Here is the input.
Amino acid sequence: MKPTTAPKTYRVKSFGCQMNVYDGERMAELLAEKGITPAPEGEDADLVVLNTCHIREKAAEKVYSDIGRLVKAGEERGQKPMIAVAGCVAQAEGEEIMARAPAVSMVVGPQAYHRLPEMLDQAVSGKRATDTEMPPIAKFDALPKRRKSAPSAFLTVQEGCDKFCTYCVVPYTRGAEISRPYNDLITEAQRLVEAGAKEITLLGQNVNAWSGENAKGHAVGLAGLIHALAEIDGLSRIRYTTSHPNDMDDALIAAHGEVGKLMPYLHLPVQSGSDRVLKAMNRSHTSDSYLRLLERFRAARPDIALSGDFIVGFPGETDAEFEETLQLVDKVRYAQAYSFKYSARPGTSAATMDGQVPREVMDERLQRLQAALGRDQHAFNAASVGKNCEVLIERKGKHADQWLGKSPWLQSVWFEADAALGDLVSVELVEAGPNSLAGRLLEMVSA
Here is the structure.
């Protein structure tokens, strides 16, 4: 590479999970610290960071497609952007990206992106840079202070996974489970609130595996952290995701009935309703233990909305085993859920298992599952009509005086009001659709 002009504008394009969104925001803050500004909407950026996800099939090929589009667009306007590839694809395939895509100046893994400014300096001087080291926690100490926040903000509290589900690449791209220190999280949460956040969602690959020592030196789990965050003035709402059934404890279940700021919503992936498939996935729960766990949450918080993750077509899954998944869905009646066709990931043990399910069979099963999940989501929304609840305004709607926000149960709600971003308002839910509800403003709660 030849030396180049330092970029003046940037754009971070994040794919995949909410943790990637958090990482993208932190990389943007690092670039802003160097005096680089976000590219205006609709304009090309001097530096593009592709913050990638490796969970789904052909993730790497999609990265190369994006790189190709960026290069072609740059050639057409006579100025190619500087390109950085970050995230889990960068972690898994860093050297190959550098070999296959000469247009890429930087490759940085999810545990090393705090070094992005230093790598940018190298790229400007004409040196391509790769960093996929995985030092525990180090990046958080190097990140800038939070100075600006949306009304709803993410806060990563835990990273990595020790579960080694047979279909999943996370242990290889995010590393072993680590928990950020309690005091660091309290401080970052306070800064987010000072910067404008009224809702904080705690993030982790296995967020309920978080543990630490509180200000008194006592060992606490996620419930203890939630209790402490609830004491922050100006913070109205707390959420957390994604949880693992094996890491649920009595204190976290109880917190849903004890902490008013903890929203009545639980995302708890199950993946399958078949115990044989769950064992093959290396999941530690059975369908019965999962259902009993949900009943404990409902006992603690009767109005809780439940969400889950499902994989159809896992190697060896029979028609009868898929029917067990549909039976579990019928029992739970999820308010929301996410469902996917099994995707073989290189390096995982499931990728070499016998009994790979044909694509057309997976397609048919996914359609049936999503129909059942959609039915239940619509029913949950319809049952909400007539309720009064608080909504946190997150963005403008399509029409004048129209606003959109989230209910306590994470439903999208739109309504008309003389209001502003970040306002917390009381609304009556008056009409339900499959994916959102209409509300009628009752009163302002806080501005």
